[in-house]
Design brief:
Elements: E1 2-5, H1 11-20, E2 25-29, E3 37-41, H2 50-54, E4 59-63, H3 70-74, E5 78-81, E6 84-87, E7 95-99, H4 106-116, E8 123-125, H5 143-155, E9 159-163, H6 167-176, E10 179-182, H7 190-198, E11 202-206, H8 213-225, E12 230-235, H9 251-260, E13 265-267, H10 269-273, H11 279-289, E14 293-299, E15 313-314, H12 318-328
Parallel strand pairs: 7-8, 7-14, 8-9, 9-10, 10-11, 11-12, 12-13, 13-14, 14-15
Antiparallel strand pairs: 1-3, 1-4, 2-3, 5-6
Helix pairs in contact: 4-5, 7-8, 11-12
The structure holds phosphoenolpyruvate and manganese (II) ion.
Phosphoenolpyruvate is lined by residues 101, 127, 163, 183-185, 206, 236, 271.
């Protein structure tokens, strides 16, 4: 946004007024005969309407650039994912997505799903395809794991969220998933974003671990432009300098998307911190930030998990976490799900 000041006005006074409204501004001097001052409102500023800016004494014009993500801007605050509403008012029913990092066996995913459904977890997560740092690490059981995941979810009346790593996997993943996950490492993979959109499924778009909010929103724009029925944004932590936690959970970005952009946001404290001992606190913080729900990794036997065991919450501890999330959101019952 560029704010132009009348040359007869004290531009310093206007600048102070704008800063008082939460705007970060850069000053530019017009070299033309009118000798006007313009203020460029920087992207990290609070949101102030053009009408409010025009009402500031001395402001004669406000020019706003077109948004680079009009479809994301127009997406409703609440989206429907196979009958489950994600997003909206802070007191809306929070959505909990949970499950193991990887689908390891038929028994494993059935055991975990059967434990999660009665406590109010609506989405069963679990990766069939893994993008691991080491090529020697467990890479996932692939198509077979997709079948196990769908079967476990169906038996327990749950929805499925799972990731496709590449275009070749998309068709099958889109068939079995209610919500198609694009992982952090693929947020910048524009051919995959386009192809994910073309499946017409709703997409859970995880934030790239070094992506700006604008890049994240524009990745969402790719999905919507190419046909995705909705995009749910998932904050999963940014790579930082401090190894105390696996990543830096950016709840400022979650609040910005949820409260200013009014978009459906899910927070993943599991990958953000890598520490199961921080999960309850960060679930509370995520909801307070405005997120519509959380995605959590859990396992019936974390010591034997084939991936991300240290951050997995033992499945027996999930009931207390889920109950607390529902209590905080003002819902009296966490068992009121079909
Ligand atoms: C995941 O959720 O399974 C995952 C790999 O997370 P991320 O893409 O955020 O690293
Ligand atoms: Mn994981």
């Amino acid at each position: 946004v560029i704010v132009t000041v009348d040359s007869r006005t004290d531009a310093d006074e206007v600048r102070r007024d704008l800063m008082g409204r939460g705007l970060w501004v850069k000053t530019f001097f017009d070299l033309g005969p009118a000798g006007r001052v313009h203020f460029l409102v920087e992207p990290g500023s609070s949101t102030v309407s053009a009408a409010e800016l025009l009402a500031v004494p001395g402001v004669i014009a406000v020019a706003a650039q077109d948004s680079p993500h009009p479809l994301v801007d127009a997406q409703p605050a609440v989206v429907d994912v196979g009958g489950i509403r994600i997003g909206g008012a802070p007191d809306a029913d929070p959505v909990i997505m949970a499950g193991p990092c990887s689908v390891e066996s038929r028994e494993q995913i059935h055991t975990i799903a059967a434990a999660l459904q009665p406590i109010g977890v609506r989405f069963l997560r679990g990766a069939a395809y893994k993008s691991r740092t080491s090529p020697y690490a467990f890479q996932g059981h692939g198509a077979q794991a997709l079948d196990w995941l769908r079967e476990a979810a169906d038996e327990n009346g749950m929805s499925v969220v799972t990731e496709a790593l590449n275009e070749a996997q998309l068709e099958r993943v889109a068939e079995i998933a209610d919500l198609l996950q694009i992982g952090s490492r693929n947020m910048h993979n524009t051919p995959l974003l386009r192809a994910a959109g073309a499946t017409r499924k709703p997409v859970l778009l995880k934030r790239g671990m070094a992506a700006t909010v604008e890049e994240w929103l524009q990745a969402g724009e790719y999905c919507l432009l190419h046909g995705a029925s909705a995009v749910v944004f998932c904050e999963r932590g940014l790579r930082g300098f401090d190894p105390s936690t696996r990543n830096n959970l950016d709840l400022g970005a979650a609040a910005l998307l949820a409260r200013v952009h009014r978009l459906p946001v899910i927070v993943d404290p599991s990958h953000a911190t890598g520490r199961r001992d921080l999960i309850p606190a960060l679930c509370r913080a995520a909801l307070a930030s405005g997120a519509s729900g959380v995605m959590l990794e859990t396992h019936h036997d974390p010591a034997r998990a084939l991936s991300d065991g240290p951050q997995a919450v033992p499945v027996g501890e999930m009931a207390a976490i889920v109950a607390e999330i529902h209590r905080l959101s003002g819902r009296s019952s966490c068992f009121a799900h079909p």
